[in-house]
Write a structure and sequence with these properties.
Layout: E1 7-11, H1 18-30, E2 35-40, H2 45-55, E3 59-62, H3 67-82, E4 86-89, H4 107-115, E5 119-125, H5 132-140, E6 147-150, H6 166-184
């Protein structure tokens, strides 16, 4: 992982507590707490400021998950990157219980281009579940310990001066997803 400066973590997504385990492990290792992009229902400004952004250090994306809210979320993440912070994103954009990676979204590469920040692909191994309680049960009672495998940072210097278009975003997203695929040993068929 880069010793200093802004960078973007890209991780596959298995269960509702992934970000918690990943942030815990990385904060212990790097002494820097990442800001993970996360989908949240609109629970009021106090809850968002105190819990979502303050305590959990998240970059919230609100319902509806339309272009306006996606852009707002990306702009907030970009502000963190400009301040030299670490931002985490699940490029699949949803939990994935399939044996292969889902098609990656382009948000991580947009941030990488705008902030001129490297991307670190991470493979997350943990319980494949659909709720907090099932995840906790499988960890505590079945011994399914979460673990991560961190890849080498991907630098996109050769792309910074190019025109940003859909082809470029797709090409860069594929590189990131193949990095995650390599860490996981799961195919990326897209």
């Amino acid at each position: 992982m880069p010793a200093s400066g802004a960078y973007i973590l890209t991780v596959n997504h298995l269960n509702t507590l992934d970000a918690f385990f990943i942030v815990s492990a990385l904060t212990l290792r790097t002494k820097r707490m990442p800001h993970f992009m996360a989908k949240f229902a609109n629970l009021g400004s106090w809850y968002e400021k105190a819990v979502v952004q303050g305590w959990a250090n998240c970059v919230p994306m609100h319902k509806p998950y339309d272009e306006k809210n996606k852009e707002r979320c990306l702009m907030l993440a970009l502000e963190y990157l400009k301040q030299g912070e670490v931002v985490g994103i699940f490029p699949e954009s949803q939990r994935n219980l399939e044996p292969y990676l889902l098609k990656g979204k382009t948000g991580a590469v947009r941030l990488a281009l705008w902030a001129k920040a490297p991307v670190v692909p991470i493979g997350y191994f943990g319980p494949l579940t659909t709720s907090h309680w099932k995840t906790i049960f499988r960890i505590v009672f079945l011994g399914e310990r979460p673990r991560i495998k961190i890849g080498q940072p991907v630098y996109f210097d050769e792309y910074y001066d190019r025109e940003i278009n859909q082809q470029l975003l797709n090409e860069m997203t594929r590189k990131i997803m193949l990095g995650i695929s390599h860490q996981l040993g799961r195919p990326y068929p897209h």
